[in-house]
Amino acid sequence: MCPPCIAHPHRFWAKSAELPENKRVKFLLVQKSAQECERKNLNEKAASRRRDRMAFQNEKNTPHPGSGLRIRRACMVCFRGMDAKGVTPILNVSDIAASFAWFEKWGWRKCWDWGTPPTFGAVGSGECEIFLCVGGQGGRGRGANATTFGPDGDQTADKGAWMSVWVEDVDEVHRQCVAAGLDVTFPPTEMPWNVREMHLRHPDGHVFRVGRGIEYVVQE
């Protein structure tokens, strides 16, 4: 801790002109020492603030609220990999009974329903399952577009969910859907990403990309 005359030398600088010549040199030395002490105190305070900010960043992984700067993450957080057992989409539907009937037209089956009257349920195909919820848990809404891919296609007009369904024979599914009068918005087409796919739209605006990977035979 510096004495008051050194910690606050500005209080005494004004008196330097009043000192005798033989004492002025000594005063200037004291003044220089006071300036060095003040710089040291300021540096220590700045270093203390930096340490506080780094401690805050390490703890919260965010910039210190008083820093005024965008600071990169100061630490790396590692998480153990999760072993997911499955993923089940949930579709918002306006009529669950009509949705059960719609899915059955292209080969799905009703698995179960819940509630009286039912407001939740599931359809399945093979080992896959889709949940249906009346009026919630996602968006819905059929667009005015006639196609979803191609030159006149619109991928944003429908407000429901999009999902891919992988099958053995896309063309057979297409024939079945056309025969049932379902809304096919994109016919079976071989796409640049090596998938033959078609699009089928649910009345509530959910779009199913029904596809199969294209297998090419390499000739030697």
Tell me what the structure shows.
The chain folds into 2 domains: 4-60; 90-213, 2,3-Dihydroxybiphenyl 1,2-Dioxygenase, domain 1. Helix content is 30%, strand content 23%. It contains 5 helices and 8 strands; from the N terminus they run H-H-H-E-H-E-E-E-E-H-E-E-E. Strands 1-4-3-2 form a 4-stranded mixed beta sheet, with helices on one face. Strands 5-8-7-6 form a 4-stranded mixed beta sheet.
In summary, what is this structure?
With 220 residues, the protein is of the alpha/beta class. The chain is 30% helix and 23% strand.
State the helix count: 5
What class would the helix/strand composition place it in? alpha/beta
User: What is the number of domains?
Assistant: 2
Question: The CATH topology of the largest domain, please?
Answer: 2,3-Dihydroxybiphenyl 1,2-Dioxygenase, domain 1
Number of strands: 8
Low-confidence segments, ≥5 residues, pLDDT <50?
1-15
The largest beta-sheet arranges its strands as 1-4-3-2
Mean pLDDT: 81
Calculate Rg over CA atoms: 37 Å
Q: Regarding CATH, which class of the largest domain?
A: Alpha Beta
Report on the biggest sheet. Answer: 4 strands, mixed
Annotated CATH homologous superfamily of the largest domain? 2,3-Dihydroxybiphenyl 1,2-Dioxygenase, domain 1
Helix proportion range: 25-40%
Bin the strand percentage.
15-25%
> Any idea what the CATH architecture of the largest domain is?
Roll
The ordered string of helix (H) and strand (E) elements is HHHEHEEEEHEEE
Instruction: Give the end-to-end Cα distance, rounded to a whole number of Å.
Output: 87 Å
